[in-house]
Structure to design on (272 residues):
């Protein structure tokens, strides 16, 4: 790992998830048994831990060892059931893919789909994503995807939202010059949160060319029906990313009348 990355002061990692019961169905248990040795990365973690080993080195040599080649690396943070990352890995065999997820059932389902397609360009990690990304060498990743992260709607929980300045700083390091962070949400308040974190970050550029009006005050479950009467401002967002398939989760949001917000940020080609 580079001296620049090692010199960073340790900081408390974001915990943007809640541990849930992870009992696997018989089908998913069989998939885990059959495919975990093929797809799941060994990050030196203790049994049941989502924290990576202290001496983990995530660099180009690790990528070559894990994937058996060097190729553009796409990382999805919070891959859920794996629909998007598997579909893209199937469509683009010339790219390497890494799915980061904390929930075992989602990982098992991803393995099942990947195994059925006999994919060789996909790897998975059961890990608190910001911890792993903080250990990656500069310029290792081409794109990062964060689709429909947990909105943590209460104000007191906003600090647990995944998109935070600390994560943006780490991604600005481990993305290659000109690399992209693609974000999607169906929650207006989360879209506003992303704009607040990212639009003034000097290491990223908002690539959006669509003007979108958002309420500039917090909107929670109890005030959602009043959102249209709150002060609004215009923000720039992106067209729908055509590499993102419509999952059941996104479809339910659309059917509920929620607007999908796509945001695309490009890391500066000239690192500070």
């Amino acid at each position: 790992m580079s001296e620049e990355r090692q010199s960073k002061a340790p900081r408390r990692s974001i915990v943007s998830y809640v541990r849930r019961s992870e009992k696997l169905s018989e089908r998913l248990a069989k998939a885990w048994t059959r495919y975990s040795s093929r797809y799941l990365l060994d990050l030196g973690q203790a049994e049941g831990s989502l924290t990576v080993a202290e001496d983990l080195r995530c660099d180009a040599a690790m990528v070559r060892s894990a994937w058996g080649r060097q190729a553009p690396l796409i990382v999805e943070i919070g891959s859920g059931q794996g629909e998007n990352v598997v579909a893209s890995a199937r469509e683009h065999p010339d790219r390497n893919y890494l799915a980061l997820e904390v929930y075992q059932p989602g990982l098992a389902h991803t393995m099942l789909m990947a195994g059925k397609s006999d994919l060789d360009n996909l790897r998975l990690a059961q890990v608190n994503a910001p911890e792993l990304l903080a250990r990656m060498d500069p310029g290792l990743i081409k794109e990062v995807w964060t689709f429909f992260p947990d909105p943590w709607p209460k104000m007191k929980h906003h600090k647990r939202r995944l998109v935070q300045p600390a994560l943006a700083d780490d991604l600005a390091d481990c993305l290659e010059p000109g690399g992209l962070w693609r974000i999607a949400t169906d929650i207006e308040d989360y879209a506003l949160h992303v704009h607040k974190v990212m639009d003034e970050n000097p290491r990223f550029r908002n690539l959006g060319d669509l003007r979108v009006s958002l309420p500039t005050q917090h909107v929670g479950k109890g005030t959602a029906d009043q959102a249209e009467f709150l002060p609004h401002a215009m923000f720039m967002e992106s067209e729908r990313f055509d590499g993102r398939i419509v999952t059941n989760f996104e479809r339910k949001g659309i059917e509920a009348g929620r607007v999908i917000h796509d945001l695309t940020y490009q890391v500066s080609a000239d690192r500070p």
Remarks:
- DSSP finds nine helices and nine strands in the chain.
